[in-house]
């Protein structure tokens, strides 16, 4: 069986024959021209070198399917991964109560099926809160890790190819929680959300929490004004004032390492306002701040590697050893592109943030509506997926070969991010065109933007 990881964590195990079945189904639905080539069957038993070659080919195949907007977003592909996740974790379909947190620490308990996908769970939470259908799409569920001071470290936005209940329980760690937060970047959309009292309350709770955790910067005078508005329970005015503050609407990431402006600099990265903001501690201990606009990123990629295990043979590398990197190619000046790398366990989450900023910009550019972008389903009815049928336990998958655990390189781990390949790049150390997100917002940049 082959292990498929998301964010360095095992998502599911699948056999070659199951992946071949997925390939044939995709070809039937989308035609041979759209679906990438699949590693061929072999008559004889594979040698260890051929096994490794096939693993690499399957990894590239899965990434190529996920990179294609049509295939990667298809119900066929996503339901395959959801069912495989449920079978691998051996969680039968049954009714359970799932706890979802709000930003103010309030808990919302929803009764769902273990086989309910992310969208179903989001709908159930919205229904429990009486959030109107047309506002559901402004919010998302995030997998977070609770830190000792009660703040949250963001692991990822829950994706359409996973089952939230299975994702959180299979981690076997009470620090991992699911939280509901707004999922857009442009604060002008706050107006839509504030039209309804439930939307207003959710936005208010998130703003208060972000200020308390120091994500939004507040000086003494602003703090006094905010306190006074809080006492008067003037929630809209509170949010309006908060919108003028630095880092409003940004997601703050855990301290990590960057190679900009020089190798090995410690940095705190925040994502928001169509940019990545860097607060860098230079080797001289001086703190410098700067921002990278998403429109000036030509492309980006996420890579991940696992060092070979140094321990006794057969021991697998610890989770902390998986090294994730986000690298983006940035237009520093006219005709001057430079790669900037961030080494962080949250690299995939950072990439998802960049992609959603670009998507939002493109919708705006085309004159589309954000409501339409979010509400892809014709009606607000809660849809139960086919995966409701109880999964036979034990599953049909063998346990993976223990001797294959320490891998030298998991080339480009892009499993949880939708990518767009780009045709060329000026960088000498490129992994290959298909490993990139090509950024369509970048193409609109003109000389005046520099």
TrEMBL record:
Statement: the UniProt record of this protein carries the keyword Ion transport: no
Any GO molecular function: phosphatidylinositol binding
Example GO BP: endocytic recycling
Keyword Zinc on entry: no
Keywords: Cytoplasm, Cytoplasmic vesicle, Endosome, Lipid-binding, Membrane, Protein transport, Transport
GO cellular component terms, A-Z: cytoplasmic vesicle membrane; early endosome
Coiled-coil residue spans: none
Membrane topology: Peripheral membrane protein
Domain PX: 1-88
Region Disordered, residue ranges: 379-410
Cellular compartment(s): Cytoplasmic vesicle membrane; Early endosome
All residue ranges annotated as the Ras-associating domain in the record: 94-185
Superkingdom, natural source: Eukaryota
PANTHER family, per database record: SORTING NEXIN 17 AND 27 (PTHR12431), SORTING NEXIN-17 (PTHR12431:SF16)
Family membership: Belongs to the sorting nexin family.
Stated role: Critical regulator of endosomal recycling of numerous surface proteins, including integrins, signaling receptor and channels. Binds to NPxY sequences in the cytoplasmic tails of target cargos. Associates with retriever and CCC complexes to prevent lysosomal degradation and promote cell surface recycling of numerous cargos such as integrins ITGB1, ITGB5 and their associated alpha subunits. Also required for maintenance of normal cell surface levels of APP and LRP1. Interacts with membranes containing phosphatidylinositol 3-phosphate (PtdIns(3P)).
Protein's UniProt name: Sorting nexin-17
Natural source organism: Odontophorus gujanensis
Annotated gene: Snx17
